[in-house]
Amino acid sequence: MVMKPFLLWPFLLAIIFPAIGQKYALEKSTITFFSDAVIEDISATNRKAGSILNTQTFEVVFSVPINEFQFKKKLMQEHFNEKYLESEKFPKSTFVGTITGLNVATQGVQSVSASGKLTIHGATNPVVIPGTAEMQAGKISLKSKFVIRLADYNITIPQLMWQNIAEQVEVTVDFTYKPQ
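The structure assignment produced for this chain is given below.
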C-alpha cells in the first residue's frame, strides 16, 4: 500500500512538464503576401512552411520554401521565382527569434511580438513583428500582418516594371502549432 503514491509520479510529471515548457511543431501554415501596385495587384500563398516553437525559451524558427508560393497567374509565379526572388539561388526565407508576451497558461487571444532576424533573398535584417497568439485545446496559433520593403532584402524592381510591382509588400502569417 505504501508504494501506490509513487505510481502517480509519472502521471503527474506528464501533466506538469508540458505546461511548463516544451517544443511545438508547425501543424498548419499559411503565408500570403500582397503587393498593391499601380497597374495590377499581386498576391501569392504558401502553405509549405516549417517551424518549431519552444515554449520554455520562447525561441521560434521558421523556414519558407520560396518556390512554393502559388500565384493566380503562372507567368507571375515564373517571374517571381526567376527574376525577383531568384529561388534557385535563394531557395528559402527564414526567421530566427523570440516571442514576447506569450503566456502558455492563458487561454484565448494574446498580443505578442516576435523579434529576431528575417532572411529573404540572401539578406538578413533585424525585425520586430507584432501579432497575436491564441492558446486553444493544447495548440498555439500565431498570426501576424506586417510590411517588408523589397529594397531591404536586395530585391530590385526593373525600371520598366515599377508600375507593376510595389516597393513594399504586406505579409500575413497564420501558423498553428501542436505539441511535439
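Interim note for the steering committee: The beta strands are 23-35, 42-46, 50-54, 59-65, 70-71, 92-100, 108-120, 123-136, 139-149, 168-179. The first strand starts at residue 23 and ends at 35.
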